[in-house]
Here is the input.
Amino acid sequence: MELGTADTVERVLISESELQAKVAELANQISRDYEGKIPLLVGILKGAFVFLSDLIRYVNIPVHVDFMQVSSYGSGTESSGIVKILKDLDISVEGRHVIVVEDIVDTGVTMQHLLELLSARKPASLAVCTLLDKKERRLVDVNLNYVGFEIPNAFVVGYGLDYAEYYRNLPFIGIPYKKVYE
Ligand code: PRP
Here is the structure.
């Protein structure tokens, strides 16, 4: 068994077809809600890049895309509670309808910091679209406008989510064998 391969995943939590159906559904909602506008979708690197790239291909209104990278986890599985900007946006959010796109909201610390930072830049509106919501781990309250799946408190990888940079390429969300990361 090689780290980062599907063989080291003990259980598939969300299959590729379930993911694609949900991403299309979220994209349809966004297309309806933002009709007549050009939302700026802000992907939070690295995890959200797979979700965002699928999401925008199901959206049928014009959108702009930009990225930010923040870091709170290091290479482990627990949040440090410290949010650092590693890469800022290129496009100004002032007066824009901004949708922050995340792969997962866990403690909520990252999203809370991002929302504070972005709202200070005076967007016309600010919303959050997250593929996964690990609600039971929440430490701070954050408002999530679009949620793909609420998931249990398990360590998940795939579809952009990593363990030590591995697994981002899996087309499904799964739980790796414990011996992989312990
Ligand atoms: C993950 C995820 C969020 C954050 C959520 O990123 O993409 O940004 O953690 O955790 P929180 O709700 O507890 O703050 P990670 O730091 O693993 O970086 P990556 O996306 O580059 O893998």
User: Anything to note?
Assistant: The pocket of PRP is lined by residues 44-47, 71-73, 79, 102-111, 162 (CB under 6 Å). Residues 16-152 form a domain with the Rossmann fold fold (CATH 3.40.50.2020).
